[in-house]
Amino acid sequence: MFAAEPSLETLQAFATSIGIGLLIGLERERQSDIKAGLRTFALVGLLGCMSALLGQITDSGWILAAGLLSIAAMMIAAHIADPLDTGDPGTTSVVALMVCYALGAMVWHGYTSTAVMLAIATTVLLYFKAELHGISKSLTPVDLRSILQFGVLALVILPILPDRDFGPYHALNPYNIWWMVVLISGVSLAGYAALRIVGAQHGAALIGLFGGLASSTATTMIFARHARASTELARAAMLVILLANVVVLVRLAVVSFVVAPAILAPLLVVLGGGALLGVAVALWGWGQLQGEGGKELPLPQVANPTEIKTALSFGALYALVLLLSAWLQDIAGSRGLYLLALASGLTDVDAIALSSLRMFGLNKLSEAQTITAITLATLSNLAFKTGLVVIIGGVALARRTLPGLATIAAGLIGGLLLVT
Questions:
Q1: Which stretch of 13-22, 123-132, 257-266 has the lowest confidence by average pLDDT?
Q2: 346 with 379: CB under 8 angstroms?
Q3: CA 308, 311, 314, 319 torsion: positive or negative?
Q4: Which of 236, 262, 289, 413 is most enclosed, with most CB atoms within 10 A?
Q5: pLDDT bracket for residue 276 (50, 70, 90)
Q6: Where are the domains of the chain?
Q7: In 3D, which of 346, 366, 378, 380 has the Cα closest to residue 419?
Q8: How many other CB atoms are found less than 10 A from the CB of residue 234?
């Protein structure tokens, strides 16, 4: 609530509203045949703030609503009177102006930080029009299905699940289990979509980064196979595999930040040690690769992470790991958990990492035990991928890749020794 007389807070609200309008209007000035530019957007932002003020003084919401309708009617009339020749009906500018008005009103009601962030997001969306159109045109029916399936996982199934503990040791919480499914599916979907969008022509580095997000195990296996089939791809395959496994550490850091932020700082020491050494070796490999020319690489064919079958499989695995973790922790203490981490980490490091983080959040594991379990699972996963490189990739790939994987492992062990 602002004072009736002019005050510093009142002036700041008006100034911020004008600034928001100038920000969005600056982007609109780039367009040809615009109906609303820099000054119009600034004035509309100010009008939104003033309408919110008048609505508050008179205790009437109709003033704010009438202003919004007037802005929309004015822009529509302008487009009807002088239609654009570009084939664009101008609806984007109409909506942008209405958003600007609403953001000005938000500033008056005290949501300044949110309004500024939304203004920046609006400007970004407007600025990257061509890029967003390009992405939408490149989407296949499979990609659209993936997005819709993720929407089902996150917006349909998750809200209806009970947020209560069930089962032995009260280890199973349906809402929590499915939330982890949504989290991992979302991260994997980002990598999966990025792979489809950037294509193979952008080189080994991007394929390794996005392949690691989608599925580091699948990426390692596929490029090991390619390296055996064509020795010319051995150095590029090494770079892809190393980067994919470095991204696993980044994924774990992101997941830890979401699930258990209290443990992030010490865990970053461990994960950061492995990631930094892995990146150093990968940069060396990238430098070597540049001298060999830019041969186009095949894209890794990873499974759609949002398929209901894939989501259910991960959910079942995560639930099983939760039960086993609670049981082994009860009968064998931390040693039982560590053995489970080594075993489950061979094929999937996400389930045991999420399980350990959840138990840490419930005060069933100490910080040191949680970090040790995650590190052991990651080392086990690296050992499994080392086996894939040796068995599938052959001598040429193993000679180039194994030192890098060993360096990542050394960084993890060194970080673990520092924090425990």
A1: 123-132
A2: no
A3: negative
A4: 236
A5: very high
A6: 8-127, 140-419
A7: 366
A8: 22
